[in-house]
Task: inverse folding
């Protein structure tokens, strides 16, 4: 039976990061973009924990801060999204120019 090494964690984190980046760059729906940003942040968390396990560092502490930041970002982003949907009745990024001056 093969052991799971740090390389396995890094490959999964890289895959999550690529999927999140493609989602942010190609989608027009704001909800999908927010979910893609969450995938990117989860890839960062996985890297922090993997390197913490490898070098006996405190990566878990930083991971908790990233999770708290992601929760705050999701709450604020969804609040803005709900307000925008009530005004424009759409969640497409192309219509967000309303927020500009």
Result:
């Amino acid at each position: 039976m093969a052991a799971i090494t740090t390389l396995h964690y890094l490959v999964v984190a890289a895959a999550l990061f690529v999927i999140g980046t493609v989602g942010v760059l190609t989608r027009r729906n704001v909800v999908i973009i927010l979910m893609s940003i969450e995938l990117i942040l989860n890839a960062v968390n996985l890297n922090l924990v993997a390197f913490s396990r490898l070098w006996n560092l405190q990566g878990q502490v930083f991971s908790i801060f990233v999770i708290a930041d992601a929760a705050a970002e999701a709450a604020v982003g969804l609040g803005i999204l709900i307000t925008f949907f009530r005004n424009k009745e759409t969640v497409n990024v192309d219509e967000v120019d309303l927020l500009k001056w």
